[in-house]
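cache lookup: miss for this entity combination. No prior model stored, computing from scratch. Input as submitted by user K.M.:
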Amino acid sequence: MDVTVTVNGTTYERDVEPRKLLIHFLRDDLDLTGSHVGCDTGNCGACSVIVDGVLVKSCMLLAVQANGASIETVEGLAEGDELTPLQLAFNEHHALQCGYCTPGMLMSATALLRENPSPSEDEIAKALQGNICRCTGYWNIVEAVKSVAK
Amino acid sequence: MLLREVEYAKPGSVAEALELLAANDGARALAGGQTLINVMKARAASPDMLVDLNGLDDLTGIELAGDGTLTIGAMTTYTELMGSAEAKARPILGEVCATIADVQVRNRGTIGGNVCSNDPTNHLPPLMVSVGARMTIAGADGEREVSAEEFFLGVYLTAVGPGELLTRISIPAGKKDGFAAVTLGADGTCIANAAATVNGSVRVALGCVDAVPVIVTAESADGVADAVRAANLEPPSDVHASSEYRTHLAEVLATRAAQEASAR
Amino acid sequence: MNVSGERTFAAPRATVWQVLNDPASMAKTMPGVESFDIHDDKRWTANVKIPLGLGGLKMKVDMEKMEEREPEFAKLSVKGNGVGAMMNMETSFTLSDAPEGGTAMAWSADVKIAGPVGSMGQRVLQPIVNQQVQHVLTALDGEVQEAMGKTG
Amino acid sequence: MIQSSETTLAPAPVEVQKGWGGQSVKRKEDKRLLQGEGVFVDDVKRHGMGYLHFVRSPYAHAHITRVDVSAAEAIDGVYGTLTGEEVAALTDPFFQISSVPGANIKDFSLAVGKVRYVGEPVVAVVAETRELARDASELVEVDYEPLAAVVDARVAQDSDTPVLHDDAGGNLMWSGLYSWGDLDAAFAEADRVVKIPELHFHRFNSTPLECDGALVEYNRGVSQWTIHTNNQFPGFAAIMMGPAMKVGLDKLRFVTQDIGGGFGNKITSHPQLVVCCLLARKLNRPVQWTEWRTDFHLSMSHGNERWFRDTEVAVKDDGTLLGFRTKALDDAGAWLRYEPLGGVIWAQVTPGMYRWKHIELEFTQVATNKAPVSPNRGYSRMQHLWFTERVIDIVARELDLDPVEVRKRNYVRAEDMPYTTPNGCVYDSGDYAAMLDLALGLVGYDSMEARRADAKERGKLLGVGIGSTLDSGTNNFGQSRLINPELQFSGNNEVATVKLDIFGEIVVTLGTTPQGQGHETTAAQVVADILNCSVDDVHVRAGHDSYWNSHAGFSGTYASQFAVTGLSAVKGATEMLAAEIKKLAGAVFGGVPAEALELADGGVRIKESPDAFLPFMACGAIINANNAGLPEDLDVTLNCRYVYRPPFEVPDVETKMGNLTLTYACQVHVAVVEVDPETGAYEIVDYAAVDDCGKRINPQIVEGQVMGATAQAIGAAVHETYEYDEDGNLLTPNFYDYHVPHALDMPPLATGAIESPSPFTPLGTKGMGEGGGAGIHAVCAAIQDATGQIVTDSHNPYQRVWRLLQEAKA
């Protein structure tokens, strides 16, 4: 089936099998390998992206379902080499180690901050509940997000 | 990961969706996909065709009638329900939805999908039973309505037959509700849960203990534990809970839910 | 997983025995049978599609009668091979004359399920198995009644 | 949510770095990872590559009676398959570390003739797309004849138990008796003998978020494979794969950039890598393999499950520990992929943190129909340390003593350092009692009784528990000879190269395969301090490539050693480079001796006349591109390779004595839990983690490691378990049932640090990446405190706590 999506401002048109998950479409067909796969049951959130303004796990959405959508992924956060305050805060607070969960974490935190620019610590943890990190224990991730909260 | 081949259809109306479902034996409705897609990844089930209900306006929306009855479109997401001013009329709904999985799942997962999958660990089947929800099912011959009690038939099986769709859920007015669960970590997989509603007497629906929610009633919260014992539950054992432990949790959680409901 | 139970049929033992030992009648009691092949009086094969709410589970099921003592006892081995699941079941039943008339059947089954479906967890599988068993027993009742109709 | 406190102790005079070392320099690797520009193994693509999917066993134990791949191969887009039969013809079984009987098993990269655990790879299928490869794998017909399975190590050696490996003649894989000191004397001297019938350390692992994978290319012209993989110990993979594939190690090139977590779990992917290699050659195209989560849970690197049985502890009435004897029974799963090294690795921490003098441990490892075990963060020591901690708390309870006092009475004391253990290991430095005080202070231990009363009012049972462990780092591989005296391994090594390139770039290559430990950053800190430049001027190459010539036999990232082996190699290479730069400058300046020169401001200058300055750019250019006229005997390349070799002797095979590890970082954790007595559900309401890893090059990275180890320990203690049913089906094959901690599950954390530099390492550092699993015990002890019942399992889900409470009532 023909699928047209706009990812980080660029429009792509591809022919895909209906069974292809959005995450595989992004990674394999569009070569946007920033979003990752860490599980096969929709638990880990490493594939989190924002579709038409809504934070979703791209492993529980078919690529054909995203037809016509505007998608934001980790690759689109920074303007060129200019990291966002959130990305800088992750560096400042050592909120990443292996970096595999990081793209999903950043997307979840980005979605949170758009909706709630001054989240409490509990609200941050609740917003990151869908993203598994096995390296950091989350404390520094929460600190990083807190540091850019208004 | 990696689904089997499947056809995909995106109907423009409920009628078209019903036609597609009726015409294709192996077709399944795709709601939020937060359960179905995962089951398909495991290839534990592989429908021949997915009929995508996303975008069908007739299946969304939350209305509050003058008598306090809430009518919720089956494709309403948990997030939409949590944010709905109308849904605050029955506060337990938003409260329970807020504990389902995580933000991403709540953004996609739908009320209709939750009840139609009727996984024994889901939160909404017992809640729908305790609040006395009524489910509207559309088919080729029009619509019919069944009570939540009649709706749940088995694991992954409901009164929604081949060629049919759950279109909306209506919930009568009320506030005296409670919900209690033991989960694997915060908002994790459910080990046992219970939903209670006080309407004169107490009505509790127990989740995770059988293929469908088990109803017990009592005069007051104090009598709930006895009522659960009298139900002679034989819940399944699994890695998280033996049948004995689940039986015990059912009793404790039923009482807690009933106490919460009574206290409102 | 072990499941067992007892059931009484309003029919003489010979009729119940006949139904239970007729592959064609048994086929009618199984959920979602799409085709059925009888190899000999001890072995038969069914292609089934077990109806699950999320989509049917297709399985090729081989049955073999391991033991029988007419008209009271039989033991069957059932091996199912599906893409999402493998099932191994040993089931047996004992018939006796019920005190209040009719035939009493005591049955038990040891069911093992492996593969992706198996990984869905006991809390899902156990209710599903119970559900399918109920389906079989209800259908069995119907078959026995039908056999009564034919013979009576 | 987080609070920190720090103390510095310097019991021994140690030269430590000044300047960049010791600063929390922001990580150099973060930028690419934050932009989604890391390169993980599944990101690597090649033209015409085929995707590999494994057909896996649905049975825990079965004979394979028939394999038919014809239907799969007939599909359009399927490139080919590989069966166990082909593997058996093309390769030799993997080399076994074990002595007999484990030495006799025949381990191939696909199941041959028999399957031994659910999820074992049986056939590999390669196709044009990922989906198609899986489709085709469903068409591979395999007939099995199921056999009874053994899933409980305790009955594995019974006569009526099925045998996994007929070649081994039974399920016993390895056994050995370790006995040090004088047990009889200890028990004669004891006032009390505390008996503990059985303790169980459960099966789990660290579940790195990225699963295993590879992209393998075969270069037919030079008969050589390039293996892009996230294997974290390519040196080990190579020595397993080369002999099996009957090729020299130079034919196996390992390339890695970013790895999505390892924790030891990515050491033993060599069987899958062999399959990829064979198929890349057979099909003459690049082969890509990505392991999915369920595959990982079913088949990869479970941590060693261990039972401690018939334990007897000799103690004095005042709580002085004299000695213990126990029988450790280790469940290896179906294959020995790194085992039975777990049978000796624990001996690095034989007495735990205590001054026990007399110890006897009978170690037995058996095979079961479960996934093979392999190293997991805290490998084998964690099990043993949990055991020693459990003994302390059980003894304290039996003697009605305070667990804090029993610990302090028996801890190895600061003044005893360096301390030689009964088996000849040397604890380098530390003050365990001071760490405990710090940790207790962080949770407000003094006010615990008031909190207990407050919890009781709210209907909760409060408990507080301690876990004190060692993270022994930098292995002496000579300990493998205690397992198998025939083995020719000993010592350890790691390599770094540091060079000055043509435009003066400082380029560092490491032999390691980091998975988030920040090696690019800490290596740059060490280099910058020696070359007296900025960390921004140091380019540490990302990842690992065995063709960079910067790897040694033991290269990799495992076993808590980078801060010692890796950074010492970096230090050595950088010092060589610094000396060469001075030598070159001396020649350029016309015979100025090295002592008169100094490195500063991105160049080298004469101390007395700083205007005589040669920038690094000039140095690099002269040697690399403008070298005419240089003195003939000037042996300067500005490309320095250094191999760090820690000071080790070969352990004594007879007495099993020897120094098995160079450094001992230490952790003291305290957990406070509140139990809901009606459900057994509990919450960790307070947590303190105090760590001492000697000199910290980058305190923030160190704290990050401590936090991660803490979270993993909490996860293991409360939720994470690989549990099997009696037929050998894994009941927790995904994150739905294998619950790892999420953000909302984390307790408030207070961290503390003490620095007691190691006197044995060039930088005063100690390896510290694994943590010792202190948190697992802290939670167990807290539950024991809250319920009043002895905790005998390392895993305490709500259900088990509820049962403990039922037992307390009864």
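stored under new cache key. The interface with chain B takes residues 51-57, 83-85, 116-117, 119-128, 130-131 of chain C (CB under 8 Å).
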